[in-house]
Amino acid sequence: MTAGKRAFWVFVLVVLIAGSGYGIYRWRAGSPAGAATPARSEAARARGVPVVAVAATRQAVPFEISAIGQVAPWQTVAVKSRLDGQIASVNFHPGDEVKAGQLLFKLDDRQLLAQLSQAQATLARDRASLANFKREAERQTELSSKEFATKKNLDDAKTQVEVTESTVKADLANIENLKVQVSYCSILAPIDGRAGDVLLTVGNNVRTADANPMVTINQLHPIAVQFGIPQRYFPMVRQVMASGTAETVAQPAGDSGKTVTGRLIFLDNTIDPTTGSFQVKAEFANTDSALWPGMFANVTVRLGTDQNALVVPNAAVMNGQQGPYAYVVKKDSTVEARPLTVARATPTMTVIDKGLEPGEEVVVQGQLRITNGTRVELRREGAGVDGAVAGEARGEANQTAARSAARGETAKE
């Protein structure tokens, strides 16, 4: 080995020895601060994870069913012409509120009026002929009684009267038919409602065979909302409908501040086996037109009140792989993940069927930091579990900074 190589390996050995010594020194310098970490963690575990819990209580809770329904007009009429003709006038504007019997369209009726005048003239002629034939029959009857006329002449006179009477009746029927045809030239609104868009305007020809209506009218006052209800509620719904107390509240989708109240009026005669639900229809006065045909609405049916329901806040109930559960605080300040049977939920509270007893406390804030058996520290609601967690984090950060500063000062010495 040359002198250069020996010098190199000696240098490496010196560096390794110096590094080992420095590491031992740093370990000794940091050991007092590091020894405090297990003690601090043990104290934190003894204190528990801060959470907020509330007690399960019994109280009166309205029994309500929520669903999403679709608004439908109470009545819908597609207005069509009952005869072929040309539109002479349109007497409303698209979107107008119309009344039953209001004139909507006027068709050209000049030809029909001329035919009606002709039929009336024919009737007048035939009535005059009938009067003459009756007089003739009377003369023949008188002459026949004196044997001045043959029986054949009398029979012919009576037959002529009967034929003319039939002609007069036919004339009257023809006149009535023409009057009806003339009335069809005035197209009237069949119901109260709101008119849609006008598809045919003045000058257009209409036919009875047209597929599209001239206008569609929807009745909005009252209006209906149709929706489905699970079949397990069928007996209750039928009972409250029979008693007339099936109050229903609808809220148009996207309008959080507007609600309208109505009642159930229709229960379908079958239950859909594919969905396990049945269709119902609720009636709403809709005086301010808050509900509009075709829109979706959040519907709540009030079927009564459960006077002794066991409830907890919605925030306490969590969903797991085995179903809903809640963290129940035990007497030793540990928590138990308790499976629950949920009866139903309101916007703020959950009604518990099985799994809890009145007075048991359930965690409503801080569930993400605990597991089954975790020791907890109860905090007052609103005191800020998040603030307590942040405070612990700041404390840990300050202790870490203090330990680092202490090690740095020792190193300087």
Could you walk me through the main structural features you see in this protein, from its secondary elements to its overall organization?
The protein has helices at residues 3-34, 36-47, 110-145, 151-184, 234-243, 385-412; strands at residues 49-55, 57-73, 76-79, 85-90, 97-98, 103-107, 186-188, 193-195, 205-206, 215-218, 223-230, 247-252, 260-267, 277-284, 296-313, 318-320, 323-329, 335-339, 341-345, 349-354, 361-365, 376-379. With 413 residues, the chain is α+β, with helices and mostly antiparallel strands. Among the domains are: 49-56 and 317-387, conserved putative lor/sdh protein from methanococcus maripaludis s2 fold, CATH 2.40.420; 66-74 and 220-307, Elongation Factor Tu (Ef-tu), domain 3 (Beta Barrel); 109-184, Helix Hairpins, CATH 1.10.287. Strands 1, 16, 17, 18, 21 and 22 form a 6-stranded mixed sheet that branches. A 6-stranded antiparallel barrel has the order 2-11-14-13-12-15. The protein has a 4-stranded antiparallel sheet with strand order 3-10-8-5, with no helix packed on it. Helix 1 packs across helix 6. The two termini are 42 Å apart. Mean pLDDT is 83; it is low at 27-40 and 387-413.
Structure characteristics:
single chain, 413 residues, alpha+beta, conserved putative lor/sdh protein from methanococcus maripaludis s2 fold, Elongation Factor Tu (Ef-tu), domain 3, Helix Hairpins, six-stranded mixed beta sheet, six-stranded antiparallel β-barrel, 6 helices, disordered C terminus
Summarize the structure.
This protein is α+β, with helices and mostly antiparallel strands and 413 residues long.
